[in-house]
Amino acid sequence: MAGRVMMGVLHRIGRRGASLLFVALLNFVYAVSLLTIPPESRGSPGIAFLELLLPLPMWAAIWGTVGLTCMVQALMLTDRLAFAAASLLMVVWGTVYLLGWAVGEIPRGFVSAVIWLGFAGWLAIISGWREARRDP
Transmembrane stretches, by residue range (predicted)? Predict the structure, then answer.
C-alpha cells in the first residue's frame, strides 16, 4: 500500500519534481548543519572563509529558503524559480570555495568547488528536461 502511494506521488510530481524534492532535502540538511557547527570546527579554513562573507545563520537562512522554494515548486507545474535558485546557490557556494582555494585560504577548496559546481550543472541539465508524457 505505501509503495503504491509513493509511486502515485512520484508519478504526479514527475522526475523534475522528484529532483527538486531531493535538492530541498539537501538544502534543509545543509542549513541545519550550518547552524549546528561544533565550536571546535568553527576555526576550519572553509568555515572561517564563509564567515568573512556572511554570518553562518545568514548562509543557513539562504539554504533553507532555497530548500523551501524547491519543496513548494516540486508540487507545481511552474518550477523555474526553484531550479534557478538552487543552481545559483550552488554556483555561488562552489565559487566561494574555488576563490578560497585560489587565494590560499581553503587548502582543499577545489574539491568542494568541483562538487558544488558539478551539482549546479546537473541541476541545469534537469531543468531542461521535459516531463515524460503521462498516459491516462
Answer: 47-69, 81-103, 109-129
* 94 residue type, one letter: G
C-alpha span between 50 and 44 (Å, rounded): 10
Instruction: Note down pLDDT in tens along the chain; length 136 residues.
Output: 667 656 656 667 899 999 999 999 999 999 999 999 998 888 889 899 999 999 999 999 999 999 999 999 999 888 999 999 999 999 999 999 999 999 999 999 999 999 999 999 999 999 998 876 555 4
Cα(127)–Cα(23) distance, integer angstroms: 12
Side chain identity at 19, as an amino acid letter?
Answer: S
Using only C-alpha atoms, what is the Rg of the chain?
17
Domain residue spans in the chain?
15-127
Give me the torsion for CA of 24, 91, 128, 71, rounded to 10°. 10
CA distance 16 to 77: 10
The pTM score is: 0.87
